[in-house]
Each structure stands twice: as C-alpha cells, then as structure tokens.
Amino acid sequence: MTRSGNLLVGQGGGPTAVINASLLGIVEEARQHRQIERILGMRYGLVGLLKGDIVDLGLEDPQRLRLVGRSPAAALGTCRRRFTPHDATPTLAVLAAHNVRFFLYIGGNDSADTAHQIQALADQSGYDLTCMGVPKTIDNDLAHMDHTPGYGSAARYIATAALNISYDTAAIATTDQVTILEVMGRNAGWLAAASILARTSSDDAPHLVYVPERPVSADCLVRQVKQVVARHGHAVIVATETIRDENGKPWARSTGDDGFGHARLVGAAERMGDVISDSLGLKVRVNKPGSLQRSAGECVSPVDWDEAYLVGKVAVSRAVDGARDMMVTLLRKPGTA
Question: Which of 123, 139, 204, 219 is flagged as catalytic?
Fold first, then answer.
C-alpha cells in the first residue's frame, strides 16, 4: 500500500459537460482519507505538470467546489499531449517536490496511457507512487466499459439538436431540401447513433445516419438521399466527422494531428453536401455543433453526472486501498437498464 502523501489530479483531452463532477468526486473523497495530506491540481494536465503549475485544491471553499462540479468544461484546464521519454526527469522532479504519492488523471484512452507511462516511470525509478485513470469521453469508446462519463450528456445534446433541426428542415424544404448534422465521435459512431433517440416513429428524422464503422460510397449516399427526399420531400442526415468511403478512406481531409497523434479530419459534411448537390441538384445546409456538443451544460444527463462523480470517488478509494496502474470502469449488470 502506498504511504501517506499528497494527491495530484489533472484533466486531459477534450472537456465534457460532466468532467468537473469527477474532479469534485475526487476532492470530496480524498478529504475522507488521512493518508492523503494535501489535494493538489495540475493546471492544463500534463503541460502543467511539466511546468510545475500546481494549485492547492484543499484551500478551495467546499461550496464553491460544488458549483464547479456542476459546470461544463475542465476547471483545471486540459491539454492534448502525449507523454514522451523527455518528460521523465521533469515529471519525477515535480512529483517529488510536492510529495505526490497518488496521481489521478481524468481522461480517455490517451490520458490513461499517460497515467500508465508515469506509473511505469515511477516503478523503474523506485519512486513510491500510485497512478489511477478516471474515465471520461463523449466518444464512448473506452475498452472494457459499458459506457463512459460524458457520453450521456453529449448524446442528449445531439438527440435534441437532431429533433430541432428536423423541424427546421421540414419547414423550409421548399428552399433547403437536405440538412447534414456533423457530429464528433472519433472512430466510434455512438454519438451519431444517439441522434435517433428523440424519434417516435421510423419516418421521423434523422432519416439517414452514417457512422465510421459502416463505410458509405458516394453512389450509395446519393441513392439513399434520393429515396428519402422522394418519400418526405426533404432529408435530415447525421454523420460522424470521421465517416469513410467504400475503400476505407475518410470523406474528410486531414489538417495535421490533434496533439495526441490522431489525424484531425475536417470537411466530411461539406464533401457529402457537394456530392448530393452535384448529383441531385438539391440545396444542402451543413450544421456543425463542434465543441457545443461536449460543453452544453443545459443538456447534462443526471445519470451521467452521478456516474462521473462516482468514478472520481471510487478512483480515490481504490488508490488508497492499494489499486494502481488501472482505470475505473462502469459495468452493466445483466437484466438492468
């Protein structure tokens, strides 16, 4: 079991509407354990750790922290940066300078890898440290997990947006016959799939949903849109920004990487719109909620918030009990909703 010392928490990757609930859960649970002497936060994730930009969360008013826990975005600030061998020396120096014995990183796959790399570094260096990953991602793509904190609220936003767009498109179908809603999700179609949650019948919009797991050719897109417009007079399409064609190539173009080494793809919806317009002569409107879909505080799911808070608390309690180099998961019991 790790000896007494300070706990350091950070937030990595894209923020969500409930990531601060996990931060709150961590702080409130940490205050219950005498092994944790101080509760520290690193500003802007790994970037702040390397700079020694550390704040004392234990000095914050508990009521103020409760308000922060209900706020979207990342209160400590976040970053997209991979841990590299060059980071080893400054990382150990900062951890030792602040007597950090518990390291918790809230994030997705890449942030979990950062926590793992720091755990390996500490073990190799003989530094007594316990690292834990705290899950979050709107993409809902973490392995060995039923669903991820952040997804439920983003899904609620997308379902609401798709419903509202369907009314708008139907109302102005004499001018704009097709609307495309492009959503996030990286290589997973969960957010796009959530767009149908507000439908009450199979004829309701969105009429077509395209996800990266199911390639779609230009010919198939045109054929399906033509059929929908013939039936309804208009078409509402939801597409993940990373959809691929029949050859596995992204519809979007690459504009570099996102800091974690993943390709930054833009323009999928615009290209789809051009294909539809050129082939069918229809006017297409493209909507991109962008970061709105992950930061809409008014669309927070109560269940999502509760689970985000819970994984923060559990990460602390498990770390104190001796668990290390792992991420908290959410599992569904058979037969339960």
Answer: 139
113 given a catalytic annotation: no
Is the whole model's pTM more than 0.85, yes or no? Answer: yes
The CATH number of domain 5-149+300-327 is 3.40.50.450: yes
Distance CA 132, CA 320 (A): 11
CA-CA distance, 172 to 186, in Å (whole number)? 31
- DSSP letters for 237-286: EEEETT-B-TTS-BSSEEEEE-SSS-EEEE-HHHHHHHHHHHHH---EEE
Q: What is the pLDDT of residues 86-131, one digit of tens each?
A: 999 999 999 999 999 999 999 999 999 999 999 999 999 999 999 9
Is there a contact between 98 and 57 (Cβ–Cβ < 8 Å)? no
In angstroms, the CA 293 to CA 158 distance is: 7
β 208-210/130-135 pair status: unpaired
- The CA radius of gyration of the chain, in Å to the nearest whole number, is 22
Using CA atoms, how far residue 185 sits from 9, 18, 101, 222, 292, in Å, is 25, 17, 34, 24, 13
* pLDDT of 175: 93
Could you tell me the CATH superfamily of domain 152-291?
Phosphofructokinase domain (3.40.50.460)
Note the Cα 202 to chain centre separation in Å: 29
C-beta neighbour count of 53 within 10 angstroms: 15
Where does CATH 3.40.50.460 sit in the chain?
152-291
